[in-house]
Specification:
CATH class of one domain: Mainly Alpha
Shape: globular
Order of helices and strands: HHHHHHHH
Structural class: mainly alpha
Number of helices: 8
Helix content: 55-70%
Number of strands: 0
Length: 192
Amino acid sequence: MAGVYKRLAEPSTDTDSFPHSREILNAWRTIRDRAAFSADLLQGDEGEAWLRYWHACLLSETPEKFPGQYKAVTNAIGNRPLTPPENVAGTIRVLLADIRPTLPAGLAQAVFMYVAVNMIHGFADGNGRLSRFILNWEAESAAAPLLVIPLNMRAQLTQSMDTAWYEGRIEPLIASLGEACVETDRLLQHLS
């Protein structure tokens, strides 16, 4: 892990030769920066500004994706209905001011925010990245383990999120996140 940390903290001159290297390094810096802040900042009136701030940080290397700005036009993922642009700000405000505070701190808030940010889909791009960032920020703030979502599990997680959001059945999502925890542990053991 020390070697990985050193390479991410001090990239070599050939870093730009790898696809998306600037975005990866930017995400790493943003993840390191969030450690200085509690996820409780998401609550209340300032929460929306923090959500937009982190989105802007995560996408700062891709200005064409409008970092920190809510979507201006309707977007879609398959045939999933997404929040219309005119409803995004109000939906986010209710989520952060009225719903999040009623949830137990830790994994309950982390999982709920992960699903909500994904399903509201308030930005033109980067919603998945932001939801994973928020999931781990919430977990980190509650001293819970961090979670990597492997690429090979994205479709499964999307399906289980749909089941949780539209049918109110959270068990498949919890099972998928449990599998992701096992994969995260496996990855960390491989890196150490």
